[in-house]
Amino acid sequence: MNYFNRVEERFEEAEFLQKAASKVKIKIENWDLESIEHNNLNSTSLRAKNDNTFGSNYTYGNSNKIMEKLIDGADKSIKFGKEVQFDFTSDKIDKTSLKARKAYESSNPPVIFDYIQKIINYIKSKQTDLTLDIEITKMFNRIDIRTSQGGELKDEICNFKLLIGSPVKGGGSYIAKNFESSKMFTDIFKDEIDDFIDQYNIAKEISIPKTGKLPVLFAPRSLYFLFVSLQAGLSGKKIYQETSPLINKKGEKIFSDKINIIDKPHMEESNSRRFFDDEGILTYKRDIIKKGVLKNYLYDLEYANKLNVKSTGNGLKKELFREGISTSVSPNFINPVVETKNKSKEELLSILKDGIYVTNVIGFHSSNYEQGHFSVQAQGFNVKGGKKVGRLQDVMIAGNIYEDFQNVINIGNKLYPNMWGYTPYILIDNVSVTGK
Amino acid sequence: MKEKFIELLTKDHLDYSDIRFERNNETDIRFEGNELKEIKETYREGGHIRIYDKGTKVYGSFSEVKDAVKTFGELKKLSDVASDYQQEKISLKSSPVIKDTIEINPKNHPKDISLSDKKELLKKYNELALKQDNVINTIFNYKDFNSKRTFVNSEGSVIEYEMLASYIHGAIFAKKNDVVQIKGVSFGGFPEFNNLLDREDDLLEKVEILQRMLTAEPIKAGNYPIIVNPQLASVLIHEAFGHLSEADIIKNNPSFIDKLQIGKKLGSKILNVIDDPTIKNTPGYYKYDDEGQPGLRTVLIKEGILNGRLHSRETADIFSEPVTGNMRAVDCNHTPIIRMSNIFIDSGEDDLQAMINSIDEGYYLFNSKGGQTTGDQFTFGAEYGYKIVNGKKQEMVRDINISGELFKTLNNISMVADDLTFNEVGGCGKGDPMQLNIFSGKGAPHIKIDSANLGGR
Fold first, then answer.
1. Taking the CB of residue A413, how many other CB atoms lie within 10 A of it?
2. To probe the interface with A, which of B182, B338, B379 has the most A CB atoms within 10 Å?
3. Residue A1: pLDDT above 70?
4. Which has the closest alpha carbon to B342: B383, B387, B281?
5. Higher per-residue confidence, B196 vs B1
């Protein structure tokens, strides 16, 4: 933060965001060590205003030369920039603690390798013919924000990610389980690994349903497409630009009354946990969908100002396939969570009876997803009499989340992480399936 | 700096190590609707180190030259730990020592154009799109990227090289009677900036198609014979086959190693697929990759038979095949991975009209909306298309997704036209974290696929 004084001299208003990120990622492919990645990267984003004209810049490193170029670049950006009315944050918070740093430092590579070996030993004792992949990533992020409005926010976050996967025999799709934690894993998730092995064995056969309207059980890992589409609809930016299908729908029922979605930014185990967003606005737990009714939109500072509301602390440097210091701030979910109900996955499969069980979808971004449309290849299993009978191949599902998620039959009783938040299993009726 | 890097890489006598240091200049301008959303010129530098020692592979990135020594030390320690856990030792195919300097000197370099002029150019296209009927929003991006790279390895190679591109990429949103449709726009300067000028007619042609998409019917899901235009066919070959020709994707997947043995028949005699980084003025043109290897033309499929694949030094050693020079990293935060340079289906002998005439009921599909693969399964979207009935092109259709299985689809390619066309702008996403590589080109002629699984809305 030594350069903040220099920034304040140069600009009437400024926001200085610095991230120091450390990461170790250990990759096992086909039972053997593939690689270790280790990064220590410092990055800075500067957003500034002179005469209400806005500019921005970013860089990596923190030498004098780099910082001078960062400041000069922001100055040039202002010269050609746009007028904005929003003010940078004046919030203050310090969430740094030894806990996160300790969690990162105590899980040194031998500890991680020992844990990986436990997983390998357990899987080996059950099944040896699969091609086992394991990835463990540990990350430590120190975030500092200072603004000329007096904003001063600090946090230290430690995350662990685990992926256990295997390509199905004979090619085709990939079976995977993923887990998240704020401390190093100790449990080897035997139930989930047993399910993973069960899926692997059933996937050896191909079974294709007939084309038609079928009930579909969506596994949590597949449900990121729901969050991606919904986020586009809830985004203050899309509402301002009049491309959201959810304009003026606040208070209206957009999903089945069985659906509750909450943005939970402080969820301890989530890799998306944030006490403040990338603009230094404090985050808080909020109902997004309650009993199927739209309760709240997502705003960052800029679009909240344009729409004359307050930022909801959802401004992140994140886009669909890109995130990080070089990305502009836009409204995003922090950590969306679909609330659980009371059915186990086995009970949901039994209720499903004849239909398909979708473990992942591919190609969602080639549909008009901002309008809620999906037309994706479904990976997973054909289900007959409540039993998985073989893996799907060349099967597509298509529809619109605002129509299909009206038809929720039931919801699972356990939360799992997907790439965009947490969901339980969700069983939907009457989804359009193209198969045989 | 080079001397310091060489000293760092050679002092510990590791089996192999390299450093890639980059100085990157980038311009980003973005309009969303009438609003200038972003305008900035950014400079950043940083490096990436790879160590192959005692049969292990470790790598990592650093932000500044001064951090190289510390990062190298940390990676070396990790390599020592890793060696206790490595079963099959990793090694690299031998390679000649190369010392070379490559500069890109286009007639019209984006660095010679002022930020103001770049902004005005983008604004002109954006305003032109916005004033057309039914257009409710636009996203127009201008980007130029000039990366000056220094590659040094412990074997003595020292290569200084450059990457340069400028392009305009946009999406136009139109709405009529609650139907919203989106049309992509891309103009590429690889490397000539002037390719981005005077493109108003191209833009208006795309808006005209978008207007017709608003009243087109959604496609009816099912299995049909299809004709795909060169842009869409290039994405199909890139997504469905190209990624499986990257040896790092299949090297630890026994099923695919078995399915993709060199000499295996993958398609009919009319199918030829090539990856070629030596074609000038294309997105995937380069002399050396980010592993210090010369980029080579590789015939991947020859008359329907698998003939070659794309390699790093590591995978070439595993497969006992030639190094092809396809290791690329989008920037210094990332390790190089095997990427296609310019992949294309070579021209055939058929003509488009004969293809249309050959279909009783099917579709003629245009332009990709992006795609994704898992193993040999692929899904990608088409912007729009036309129904074909009894050999005649009929009304426009929209909301089209194609999914399928690679090997079946390649075998179903029954006609290849004589109109090979390369896309102006490159693009490919691969890796975790995702590396979006603009220096990956693709091309194809029109092709006919006898049966494809189409998903509608």
1. 15
2. B379
3. no
4. B281
5. B196
Predicted local distance difference test score (pLDDT) of residue B179: 87
Alpha carbon distance A194, A197 (integer Å): 5
Mean pLDDT of A156-169: 95
Identify whether residues B190 and B338 lie together within a single domain: no
CA dihedral angle for residue A214, residue A215, residue A217, residue A223, rounded to 10 degrees? 70
Residue (of B165, B170, B161, B191) closest to B100 by Cα position: B161
Count CB pairs under 8 A between chains A and B: 252
How far CA B286 is from CA of B158, B298, B339, B390, in Å, comes to 16, 14, 12, 46
pLDDT at A112 exceeding the cut of 80: yes
Distance from CA of B266 to the nearest CA of A (A): 15
Number of domains in chain B: 2
Q: What CATH number is attached to the domain comprising B209? A: 3.30.2290.10
Tokens 């899926």: give the residue: A199
Say yes or no: B70 and B110 in one domain.
Answer: yes
| DSSP states along B9-31 | HHTT--SEEEEEEEEEEEEEEEE
* Residue whose entry in the numeric block shows the structure tokens 């356990």: A414
Q: Are residues B170 and B308 in the same domain?
A: no
pLDDT digits (tens, 9 = 90+) for B17-63: 999 999 999 999 999 999 999 999 999 999 999 999 999 999 999 99
Q: Is the pLDDT of residue B436 over 90?
A: no
Does one domain contain both B203 and B229?
no
Shared-domain flag, residues B297 and B148? no
Query: Which residues constitute the domain of residue B31?
Result: 2-215
Q: Is there a single domain that holds both residue B45 and residue B181?
A: yes
The whole-angstrom separation of Cα A429 and Cα A424 is 16
Nearest to A73 among B42, B58, B255 (CB): B42
Interface of A with B in 38-97 (CB under 8 A): 38-43, 55-63, 66, 69, 73-74, 76-77, 80-82
Q: Are B242 and B121 part of one and the same domain? A: no
List % helix, strand, coil for chain B (3-state, nearest 5): 25, 40, 35
* Separation of alpha carbons B318 and B306, rounded Å: 18
